[in-house]
Amino acid sequence: MDLRQMEYVVALAEERHFTRAAGLSGVSQSGLSAAIRSLEEELGTPLFDRTTRRVEPTDAGRALLPHARAMLMQATAARDAVVAASRELSGTLRIGAEQCLGVVDVGALLERFDRRFPHVQISFTQAGSHDLVAQVREDVLDAAFVATADHLGGLVQTELGREPLVVLMRPDHRLAGASVLGPHDLVDEAFIDFDPAWALRPLNDSAFAAASLHRNVRLSVNDVHTLLDLVSRGLGIAIVPAHVAAKRQAAGLVRVRLTALGSPEWVVCAVTSSWDRPTSPAPYLLEILAETPRSTGPDSPWVIPLPAPQGEV
């Protein structure tokens, strides 16, 4: 067994779906299936029960899972130790991120960076995506993780991942039984949303503007947990990325998918003014991001392989 197989085991155990697990692992579905079958043959027992609708770990698969995770963590720690011993990097990393992006685990990423490059000072800023983009443009930040592709100008953008938006409401709401909803279904509703500096607000507003509809934002917040609390108290509904609706704090709420007209995607990007500035440690942070094993779950944001920069947009 090898590390790549362990990564596939973890992804499949968490996703319960071959296509999604393959996407997170950056491999074709057939490649992932073949690797899992090869491992099962090596171990002499099935690791997953397959049905037409779902994949579940067997008892043997569940027994292997903690060891697979441990192997991946040990490999990561070993790589960091080697790099820390062979590279001497100093200076300051000026990095920013919007709250609860869902596609990149910023805390875990900064922890790995600090372990690998202990002589680099980390300056971290949390703010709305539009404010962060302005700070990168003004050279206040080296790079930022944001959920917007608007107003980037000459900044370099690398997409990290995307997910759909859903409508979140109390179970006793009049629309809780709907299978799908669009802007026209929601036009009379009171909304809870973020301040316009955060990426979600203009994304939601644009969906209604595209349908020539006005949206009543009753309450504006600057915190995900506050938004979920206000929705649970019946003060309004919210349109949020799917990972927010999967949080434990949203467990008692109903989520309804949006129609194509009203479903702009939540797209998370890394932005920077340059990828090759010799004085900036930012490329090393993104290098770590590209190496990070993927993990999924309601409160465990996943990280995907970093593609090549798309150039200036």
Which features characterize this protein?
21% strand, D-Maltodextrin-Binding Protein, domain 2, alpha/beta, 313 residues, 5-stranded mixed sheet, 3 domains, disordered C terminus, 4-stranded mixed sheet, Arc Repressor Mutant, subunit A
How many strands appear in the DSSP assignment? 13
- Order of H and E elements: HHHEEHEHEHEEEEHEHEHEHEEH
Q: Estimate percent helicity.
A: 25-40%
If strands are numbered along the chain, what order do they take across the biggest sheet? 4-3-5-13-6
Under CATH, the topology of the largest domain is which?
D-Maltodextrin-Binding Protein, domain 2
Mean pLDDT: 83
Strand content: 15-25%
CATH homologous superfamily of the largest domain - what is it?
Periplasmic binding protein-like II
Task: Extract low-pLDDT stretches.
Answer: 294-313
Largest sheet: 5 strands, mixed
Head-to-tail CA distance between termini: 43 Å
Taking all Cα atoms into account, the compactness measure Rg is 21 Å
Broad structural category: alpha/beta
**Count of discrete domains:** 3
The backbone outline, from C-alpha atoms, is flat
CATH class of the largest domain: Alpha Beta
